[in-house]
Each structure stands twice: as C-alpha cells, then as structure tokens.
Amino acid sequence: MEPRLLRSHLPTNLAYLLKTRPLHALLSDASTSQAARHLFDAVPRPTAALCSAFLSGLSKLSLHRELIETVSSLHRRGAGVPPGCVPLVLKSCALSAAACQGRQAHCHALVRGMLGDVFVQTALVDFYAKNGDMVSAVRVFEEMPVKDPIPMNCLITGYSKSGDVEKARRLFDGMPRRTSASWNSMIACYAHGGEFHEALALFDRMVSEGASPNAITITTVFSICAKTGDIDTGRRARALIVERDLQNMIVHTALMEMYVKCRAIDEAHREFDRMPQRDVVAWSTMIAGYAQNGRPHESLELFERMKVTNCKPNEVTLVGVLSACAQLGSDELGEQIGNYVESQRLPLTSYLGSALIDMYIKCGHIGRARNVFTRMEQKVVIAWNSMIRGLALNGFAEDAIALYEKMVSDSIQPNEITFVALLTACTHAGLVDKGMAFFEEMKEKHHVSPQVEHCACMVDLLCKSGRLWEAYKFICDMEVEPNAVIWSTLLSACRAHSDVELAKLAAGKLLTLEPDNSSIYVLLSNIYADAGLWGDVREIRDLMRSKNVQKLSAYSWIELDGEVHKFLVQDTYHPRSAEIYTVVDALGLQLDRTNPDPELISEFC
C-alpha cells in the first residue's frame, strides 16, 4: 500500500506522526511504539523491509511477547518472516519460555533452508538451552561446522540451569578459546549449584590467566561473597573496579550489598557516598543494610536523606525502614512511619503488609496491625504468623488461637513459626492443656518436627504453671538437644517456686553449656539465699572469683520525644549526663524533706 493511501485510512494523530517521523523511528521509540503498532496493523501485506524494521524495533525494546504475537499475525496475513529476523524470533521465544512458538520457528527455518546460517544455529542452541531441552541444544550444536564460544556459552548456561555442573565444566575445559562470557557462564554455573568455593577459585584462575573480568563477572563475585561472607575475595574484586574501569550503579550496588551481608556496614556506606548517582535500589540497599546490622537510627536518618532527594521509595525501601522502626519499638515513631508508609498507596503485598504488621506490633499498635491484616487481599503464611505472634505477645491469647483456627480453615498450611507463636499465646495465658494439644497437633497433623524453639515454649508453659518436674522430664525426653535458654527458663522457675534440688540440676546443665555466664551464678546464689543456705551462697561467689566471672551491668531504657535513651548505673556517657544528675540530686533533696515512710520505701526496695 502506498504511504499516501495508508495515511488516508489512519486516525489524524497517527497520520501526523507518520508525516513528521520515519516509521523505523516510531518503531524504536518506546513513547510511540503503540502508535507504530497501529500503523503496522493497518498494512494488509507488509513488505519484508517493513517487517524487519518492526520486528527489530520490538526486539530492541525487549517487547518479546509482542514480537511473538506479531509473527503469528504476519502468518495469518500471509506475510512471511524475513530471513534475517528468525534469530530475533528465537531470542524472544527463549526469553519468554515460548517453547511451542520456538519449535515452529525452527520448522520455519528448516523449510526455508536457513539451518546453515550460523546466526540461526546459535539462536537455536540458545533457545533450546534456555528452555531446558539440552538434547536438542546439543544436537543443533553438533551440526554446526564452526563451534565458536557463543553457542558453547549457551550450552554452559543451559547445563547450569539443569543442574549438570559436571557437563558444563567438561565443555568449558574443552574450549579452545574462552571469552569473558565463557568464564562468567561457568562461574555462574557453580554459583547456581551452590558450589561457591569452586566459583571463587575459578574467578581467581580467570584473573591469574589474564582474562578480562567485566561488570557481570564482578557483580556475580560480589553476590557469591555476600552469600559466603568472604569479604577478602570481595575486596580483591573491588580493586578491579577502578583498575578496569567497571564502575556503574549495578556494580556499586552489588558491592554495597556484599559489604552489608559481611557486616562491614561502614565500608558499605563509604561506597554509597562515593556513588555519583544513586537510584532507589542503592538507597534501599543501604537503608536495609543498617537495619539488618542492628543500627536502626542510621537507617532512619538515611531514609530522611533519601526523601530530600525526591527519590521515590519502593516496597524494598519501606520494608527496610519498617524493620528499623520495629527494632526501636518506639510508639510515637511507629505511628509516624506507619502513616508515611500507608500514605504511599503501595499495594499491601505479603512482603510489605507483613513488615507493617510486625512494626505496628513491636511498637504497641495492635489495632493498626489488625487493620492492615484485614486489608491484605492475599495473605501468605508469613502474614498470618506475624498477626498470630502479635496477638500472642500483646496478651490476646484467645484471639491468636481463633486466628490460627481461621488460618487452618482457609487451607493455609501452618509452619514451624506458626506454632512458636501459637505456643507463646498459650504460655502468656497459662493454657497448659491447649498448649500441649497444639504441640501434639503440630507433630501428628501438620508433620512439623519440634525444634528447640517449640520445646522452649513448652518448658516455659509448664514452668509458669508450676509443673517444674514435668518440665524437667519434658527436657530430658526432647528429640533435640536442649539449649541454655531452656535450662535458664527452668532455673528461673526454680527460684519462683523455691525448688533448690531442681535448681542444682538445672544450674549444673547450664554451667556445662555457658561456664562464663555470670547470670547463672547470680541466680543460683539468690536461690540459695532465699532458702537460707548461706554456706552455698559463699561457695558460689568464691567459684565466680576463682573463675574470674564478672557480673554484667544492666541498662535502663527510656523513650522521650521519639528518641530512645540508654543508661547504666553511674553512667556519664549521655551528652546531658551532668544535667540529669543535677535533677536527680534535687529530687533526692526533695525526697529527704518529705520524711518518707520507711516501711513504704522497704516495699519497693
């Protein structure tokens, strides 16, 4: 069809676009690609040149599904796919997991006599490898007269995806010439299979043999180091960034993530400060990094810096902020951050919704947590667990149990975390029989093996109800090895119930596990003192001195104007300590003038 005749059949705005810009320019521009699609669809039998331009444009924009649909449309209109576009079609099928359409493209290439074309052969190897059909991928590869590194890299990636590391390595070792992509494929293959040591050893070999690591290599290595905590290899890889001019936002973000996971948060922040530009991923990595490393104040301060830059936070950013806020447990700050997060109008996904529930619970806003839970459209097990745990910790045991029953009735499979929350609810409410029934239900009905956390809940439940010897028998019969927390729970209960005999047994087990823990000695000493066994008290204190066990100092915490302050006895580290002591001394003088009742004071001492 002539362009003039084509324009006469188009809406005015499309006709104007065609007058002002060439069709190939419209096809390659994301802002006008939809208009270009209308133009293309208006042509009854497009020429080979027009088809090539359109399919190339879709491929450049990574619109792979649209490309496959366009090919189907061309066949229906009686127009064939130009020979040079067959590799593009196969690429789209590979990236869209469109196995059926990819095989049709293979048949088309066979009928058109194109299987001798090296580009078509390489695209076929890539298609079959990405779709997991390694038999077909190898068959096409073996028919290639010249086996260059590109199809071999495709096969290595395919073997990696199928988990066959051994075949991938044999192919890699047999390559006469390796490109950077070859090394990257094999390193990624080891990483995909969890063989991190071999992956890093291959990276070291790559550098020693004079190969050229690129940004993909370095990013992969940083990812492996983050998983393994191998900060030394990560630092060696970091030196290559400047040396080989591999600096870009993706590499720097991967480096920050590696430092965060290796708990080198200050190094991560230095890299963050060096970045000339920062996207939301970089901000989110650093904000979450501070939260994950137990430095919530810095996390929230960085979030305030991010807001000033007008970089819009995404779901990952907000989850990091909520985690930091939850660690502080601040009532006022929790409400403030919660209001901000909800004002962003992001969908309450299981990820964001669960983080919001957890933050509200830890900051004491149980009603708002319930509201978020109710509004969540899709509730996965993590959301149910967060809500059940929150109700349990805030004293709503019956509500927690009712929610668990609703969870089961909605066919959501509870996991080990669900039962920790449920048993915690029973412990807080003293529901011993229910707790024991849930413990058995966990094993028999839901096939969840008891972990040490479940057993700790059961011991706590029995101890709080005064059934100490039953708790001791439970500990002795446990399928998992009891830890210090379990024995400490029993020892504390022994003091509350004045059971000296059982206290000696529990303390003996504890001292085997934690011989330098001063709290064990202090607690046992107090139990002896309560029973009037002063000789035993002296023995415990002498034992502490002989082992040089020091009693740990206790801190007091207070929240004021959204900030949490921490104090130690005779503490002078607080910036306003002099002012605080002046006020305390004044209060002491005021107390002296009031002639307080000694009996009243003794009740509080």
Describe the structure.
Keywords: Repeat, Transit peptide. It comes from Urochloa decumbens. This is Pentatricopeptide repeat-containing protein. The protein has 605 residues and is mainly alpha-helical. A two-stranded antiparallel ribbon has the order 1-2. The N terminus and C terminus are likely disordered. The chain contains 36 helices and 2 strands. Helix 23 packs parallel to helix 25.
Descriptors:
single chain; two-stranded antiparallel sheet; 2% strand; 605 residues; transit peptide
Short précis:
This protein has 605 residues and is an all-alpha fold. The chain has helices spanning 3-8, 12-20, 23-27, 33-41, 48-60, 64-76, 86-95, 99-111, 118-130, 134-142, 149-162, 165-173, 180-192, 196-208, 215-228, 231-243, 249-261, 265-274, 280-292, 296-308, 315-328, 331-343, 350-362, 366-375, 381-393, 397-409, 416-429, 432-444, 452-464, 468-476, 484-496, 500-513, 518-530, 534-546, 577-593, 598-604, and strands spanning 555-560, 563-568.
